[in-house]
Amino acid sequence: MKIDGTRIKPLREGMGLTIQQLADKVDLSPSAIGMYERGQRTPKLKIILILAEFFSVDVNYFAMGFTVSHEQIENSYIATEVFKRASGICELCNTMAPFIRSNGQPYLETYILKDHSISAEHVAAVCPNCLKKLEVLQLPGDIIYLKNKICKN
Ligand SMILES: [Zn+2]
Prior knowledge:
Blueprint: H1 8-14, H2 19-26, H3 30-37, H4 45-55, H5 70-74, H6 77-86, E1 109-112, E2 123-126, H7 128-137, H8 140-150
Antiparallel strand pairs: 1-2
Helix pairs in contact: 2-3
Zinc ion (ZN) binds at residues 90, 92-93, 95, 126-127, 129-130.
């Protein structure tokens, strides 16, 4: 597996951490993290395992050419952030979630706008109908609408 350290940055920024803060939390040197993020140095697998655990992402997220799946998003802290932003309203059709989960959370699903980035800015919370519509029709208008609404870049 070829490791891509530049993928650390979106995760770190997604959590609102500086390089120094991340370094303190995972007990690594800030200069090493900076070099990984700029692609000047490749992190060893041992480092990637620590970071994957810290960010609650699959270790394969750091593999080059790896595409992020809905399941991986659902299991990461990103989903919490995305659902909090949507607050029970589908970000595509703007209607309420179809039902409430047994834990009291409105039921919405995640739709990934950018395959290679795990960041709340690139994931939309949509109702199951809209998720199917996005997957089946792949209307450029829907995708542009979501990108304008969610992505800061
Ligand atoms: Zn919807």
